[in-house]
Structures are given as structure tokens and as C-alpha cells.
Amino acid sequence: MRKKLKIVITAILTLSSTLFFAQSHEINGTITNESGNPLEFATILIKGTKTSVTSDALGKFKVTSAAIAPVLIITQFGYDTKEVVAKDHIIIIQLVQENNNLDEIVVVGSRNPKKSKLETAVPVDVVNLAKIRNITPQTSTNDILTYLIPSFNSSRQSSSDGTEHIDPASLRGLGPDQVLVLINGKRRHTTSLVNYQNTVGNGSVGTDLSAIPASAIKRIEVLRDGAAAQYGSDAIAGVINLVLKDNVGFDANVTYGGTSRNDGQTTNLNLNYGAKIGNKGGFINLTAEFNNREKTNRSQNNNLIIFDQTSIGNGNGTLSYDFANDPAQSRQFDDNLLAQKGLNRDDFNFQIGDAKIKNIQGFFNASIPLNDQIEFYASGGISHRNGTGYGFRRLPSETENVVFSIFPLGFQPELNSVVTDLSSSVGFKFKFGEWKLDLSNTIGENKFVYDVSNTNNVSLGDNSPTDFKAGNHSFLQSTANLDVTRLYKEVFNGLNVAFGGEYRFEKYKIVAGEEDSYINGGAQSFPGFSPLNAVNENRKSVGVYADVEADVTEKLLIGVAGRYEDFTDFGNTLNGKLSARYKILDNLFIRGAISTGFRAPSLHQQYFNNIATDIVDGQILNSGIFRNDSDVAKELGIPKLKEETSRNYSFGVVFSPTKKLHITADYYHIRIDNRIILTGNLGNDAYGDPVPALRDLFANYGAQTGRFFTNAINTTTNGLDLVIDYDMNVGEGKLNLSLLYNYNNNKVDDKLNNIPALFIGQEDVYYGPQERSLIESNTPKHKGTFAVNYSLSKWNFLLRNTYFGEVIRDGFPFGGIQKHNGKVVTDLTVAYKITPKIQIALGANNLFDVFPDRQIYENSYFGVFKYAPVQMGTTGAYYFGRMSFSL
């Protein structure tokens, strides 16, 4: 009896202890991505129950189960769902990213940390650069975005001073300074360069995307909606956020290519290394990149130049020549006669094309969790660029421009730039319960140093140097941010609250060059900055914002944002945004937003001034850009600059018929009032003839004509974005089809703002057809891309056709109106993995050597400029080979 009782008691105790253990079976785990970095906000569900938890900022979670070995279901936006049998008390679970990056969680557009691209109330494009970079023909960030984001446009300029060395870019046809660039969600500084050579973005100051090596970027998020109320000044057209790499491992990539005309050779070498720091998800990622691009030449060269053979042959010490409109006459050019004089055609070439650029860059990105509540992070880098561009050729018969004893054949000046870009961002993230706090400071500086060579200063005669140090300009920006967020899961179906403040300091400088570069008219092509041009100005601004987004129901999302900013140099502004998204069906959403915005005039627009060489009706003249607060501006009645203001409206549809097919269509309307522009050359009338009174006035300041920044225009932009992305299995391979399309129509109001009384009746001079066409018709109204990407075993194939729609350029008053027909550019890449770690790729950008239509003679500077730098640019076919190595 005693033995039986002992057995029963033992059984009861064993069963009791088993039940107790089952009730308290605690699992501690960590969720990471493929690189071992922690994933926040992953959902861990115990299968067969309603028990679930969410991973924290370090990817950690804790869950209790009644089962000894429960099955956990882990889900996270942008990653494949995973089921794991939790046999151990401590586990690490690694998620694999989905091939379709449309579901990837985004940083811009919503401060809700759980919103994917398809769930935001405004359109966001995601370019997973780390995945596609090895197969895309383009190597720079600007070029990559041009072929992947339909509303993004960038084209290289020629004979346009500093603009040759920093390609201006636009989003939705607006100015480079109307799109805000972020790195890891932090504001990026702009360049120190003002675009003033009548190119796209004339009068604006953009951000140099090429200063950030593409090999350092994990992905690019493009918010296609006005976001000034969320992110501040400059975000009228949208926001581009560059998310830096955080992977562990080593990658090396080398690309070499050239054009079908045996020029424009490019060499790109980049190295990327990432390593873990500690055991809490810390990392450091380092990138080094070298890029060298040789010049291209797309001029008519000697084919349209006719020399007076008698003057060449008679040895009288002079050369005279003329231009002609008839290419057939070029046969009069006698190569044998030139050879007798020790000359050849190359001695008279015009260099018109892409500038020579050499870039050396380094970047880093790091994160170090100090404990479960505090994380330190930092990023930054350096870019050092040397560029060589070319001015207009000076003819030997132009005695007012050429010192004959130095350049008996005339000369083509060279503008040599050294562009140095430095940046760093450091911060701490804190976690106080459910509250998150982010405190950071970001600082960046861009410096542009000019040297002019192969030129002369006529006023110095035979003693003129041929190389000049022409001065420099620089821009520094320091931004301190405090951001606070919290996600209330129990309020509605989720309420995200964010608020914070920003303090920004900006400084702009112009430093004079050596005296010979600016005295008495200065060096030809680019007179140096004089002490009168010197600038050392700064300003401060303070901003506060609040951003609330709520899933009011399972179907309805509403967001409200407001921002107040105060600038020391122009005043304050208050802007707001209302956005919403409604789920009609689980796979059909509608979304829309209404917002106001602003852009403060940049320090560059307020204080940049110089004397530059311009071509007016075939004549080389010195044209001044004068400060808005200068004496000459006051004499002419030029009004003081004020901020641009905008109103943005958008409405869109998101439809996902299947998990692998996604369709988004978004309409937008943008109204900008008091937009800042750079006037035309004042000093001429509407037909290009001199106005004596104005010429006399500008002569007092060393110029024949003058230009000013002013809030002269209002613009209206209407457009449509369409994105279709489809993944499917074809045989044993995977096929991705994507169709991207943008329609964009910019219109400048007929009536100008605040025009001085002196220029009433001269509106076509103050802001003429040429300046108007740069905004209205110099970027394509229609642009679309259809891409096919197929991967099979070790092979990857990319075929992409990009349509650049018609553009219209107006050369008034010295040229004509020309339509450049729409063209299709084809990219093709074939990649093969020799081993799992080594891949080679061969391909082409612009496979069929497509160019814009040739310019009409009136717009081509006597036939020298064969093509205008519009649409796909003037490079033509570019062929490349690439080898990639990963470890």
C-alpha cells in the first residue's frame, strides 16, 4: 500500500511540475536580417494561438508558451514569412528579404515605423541599389535614378562653367533646389555652386548626388509628394533619401567602359567592407570608390570651319577664318597646306561634350548599441573631384579677346575645378519605455576651387599668364535635430506620434582669385572673383514640427503634420499637411494628400555675384550677376528676395491583384508662387540690341549686361505617375517586369511678379522665352521605362527601354524654337556568376547610339554645338564590362 501511494505521489508531482514548466516556458530570441543586423517591429506569433509579441530596436523579443516546443511564425514587411520550432530557450531567427522590394519598409513619407511602400498615404519609390547595382549600366547615383525614376531627370551640360562638373537634376520638372536630399533620414547639404549658364535649373542650387558613392548606398527612397510640413524647406517637389549600407562582409567591383566614338572612357573601382561590432547588432560599414571619366567631344569640329588658305600660306603671321552654313564647303580645308605650316585640324578643334571628371571618395556608416536603451550611430564621408571643362573657342581674328603673340591660332579655354565635399552625422537613439528619442547633429561643407588654363587676360598683353587661380566658393551647413516618436498600438488600430525640433546654421563664402584673373576684364572664359565679389555671410533657422498618423480603422489611415520655421534673414513660415489612405478592398487602396510648402531663398541666391563671359548674338560679352542688395539692384528697382510658397495636391490608387503584381497610379498638382529665377541679360532689348542707358550703368561695374535673382514667376505643375511591377516564375528562373511612366506639365503664368517699372514692356528681356522654356519644355513631358529582368541559375539578363519624350528649346532672341522628338534608349546587360562569389557582366547603355535631334543652325553657335544636352544627353552608346567579387 505504501509503495502504491509513493508511485501516485511521484506521478502527481511529476505531472504538476510538467504543467508548471509548460505554463512558464519562456523563449528569448533575436530577429535579424541576412547580414545579421537586428530587425525591429517583426511580429512573432505562437502558431495556433493569439499570443504575439513584437521585436524591439535590437531585434529582441520575449514570449511565454504553454507548449514545450512551440511553433513561432515570424513576419516582417519586406521579408519572407518564416516558421520556427522553438526547442531552445534562447534562439536567433534570420529572415530573408523578399525579391519584390515594393513591400519594403520606408523611412520617408511616414514616420510610422511599420509602414511599407504600398501602405503609405503618398507615393514612394524604392530602388534597392545594393541588389541592382552590379547589373545596371550606370555607375553614378544621378545616372542610375534617371533610368529608374521616371519623374527624375538629369543630363550632363557642356561649356557651362561649374555646371559641367555637377550635373543639375530635377524631380517632376521642378528645380534642383526644390527637392530635399536626406542621408539615413538626415538633411544633406547643398553644393556651393549656382547654376547660371541657362541650363536646366537655371538660377538654382542643388545637392550633388555624385558626391555620395553609389557603392555606399543600400537603397534609395524617393518620396514623390510635397513634404515641407514634415521635413522643412526645399521639399516642395519631394524627398530623396539615401539609406547607407549596413551589411557585413566584403565586396569589390570594377567597371571599365567607353563610347562608340572611342572617347568618354570610364574606370570605376569600389570596395565595401562591413563588420559586426559587439554582440548586440552593432556594425561598421566602409566604402572607398575611385571613378575616372574621360571627356567626350560632340562638336562639329573642323567640318564647318573654312580658313583663308592664302593667309595661311603667305607667311604674313596672321590667320583669318570664317564660319559657313554649308558643310560641303569644308572640302576647301587643305590638310596638306596645314601640314606645311606644322599644323593639323586638331589645332583648330572645338571641344564640346562631357567634361573630364576624376572622383576619389570614401564613406562610412556605423551603429553601436551601448545597452538595451541607448544606441550610438554615425556616418559621413569625403569626396574629392577634379574636373576639366571647356569654354568657347576664341578665334585669332578676335583681337579684343586674344593676345596674338601667345595664341597665334586662337585658343579654347579650360576650366579646371577642384570640388571637395565633406560630411558627418553623429547621434544617439534612446528608448524610454515605448518612447523613442533621436538626438543628432549633421554637418557638411562643399568647396569649389576654380583654375583657368590655356587662356589669357588681354589687358596684360604679351605679359599675360596662360593659367590663373580664379578663386573659390564654399557652403557649410550644420543641422541639429531632436526627434521623438511613439507608436500607440492600443489607440485606434495604431497611432504614431512624432514631434521634434531643428536648429540649422549655414555659411556661404566667395574668395577672390589672384589679381591677374580679374583685373580689367580678367581671364577669358572665366574672369576670376575679385575682392568686390567676396562674400562671407551666414544665417540661422529654427524649426519645430509635429506629425501624427493613425490607423483610425483597419481600412482608414489619416495623417496630419505641421511645421513652423523661423529664419534670421527672411522671417518665419507655418505649413501643414493632411494625408489619408482608405482600403476599399484588401488589395485596393486609394490615397491622397493636401499640403502647403515653402522654400527659403538660399544664401547663394542672395549673395552670389560675379562677372562671367557670355555669348550674345555671336558676340562675347562680360555679363554680371549682381547681388539683390547691391547698389545697381537698388538703382534698377529689383525687389528684395522672399520665400517661395507652394500648395500640393495628390490623389492615387494602389491595386495588387496578386501578391506579385502591384499597380500604383498617382495624380499631382503643384502650385508655386513667387518662384525665384535668374533674369535674362538686362542691357539688351527684346531683339538683343544694346540699350545704351543700361550698358552705361553696368559699365560702372565692369560689365555690359546684368542679371539678378528675383521672385518673378508663379508656376503650376500637373502630372501623373504610373508604376506597374510584376514578379513571376518562368521555368526554373525568376522574371520581373516593370513599367514606369511619368507625365509632367509645367506652366509659367503669363504675368510676371514685381517687375520694376523700368522693364514694363520689356518682359521678354526680364524673363524671356528662353528662360521660360527651361522650365516649361526643356524636360520631357512624357517619360517611361519598360524593364525585363530575368535570373536563371548563374545568369542574369536585364533589358530596359526608356522613352524620353519631346522637348522644346527656345533660343530667343538669338536663336529659334526647335522641337526635339521623343526617342527610346535601350540598355542591355548580361551577367554570369563564375562562382558564388565572382560575377562578370557585359552590357551597354544606349545600345543603339541614340542622340537628341541635331540642333537647328541658329541654336548651334554657328554649327559647333551639334546636339543640345537634353533627354538622354550627348554621350551616345556606352559599352562596359564589370567584375564583382563578394566575400
UniProtKB/TrEMBL annotation:
Q: What GO terms fall under cellular component here?
A: cell outer membrane
Q: What is this protein called?
A: TonB-dependent receptor
Provide the alphabetized UniProt keywords: Cell outer membrane, Membrane, Receptor, Signal, TonB box, Transmembrane, Transmembrane beta strand, Transport
User: Which stretches are annotated as coiled coil?
Assistant: none
Chief place of localization:
membrane
Which segments constitute the TonB-dependent receptor-like beta-barrel domain? Answer: 410-847
- Signal peptide range in chain numbering: 1-22
Give all residue intervals belonging to the TonB-dependent receptor plug domain: 117-239
- What family, per the record? Belongs to the TonB-dependent receptor family.
Membrane topology per record: Multi-pass membrane protein
Report the InterPro entries cross-referenced here: Beta-barrel_TonB, Beta-barrel_TonB_sf, CarboxyPept-like_regulatory, Plug_dom, Plug_dom_sf, TonB-dep_rcpt-like
PANTHER family for the chain:
PTHR47234, SECRETIN_TONB SHORT N-TERMINAL DOMAIN-CONTAINING PROTEIN (PTHR47234:SF3)
Q: Where in the cell is it found?
A: Cell outer membrane
* Pfam families in UniProt: CarbopepD_reg_2, Plug, TonB_dep_Rec_b-barrel
The keyword Endoplasmic reticulum belongs to this UniProt entry's keyword annotation: no
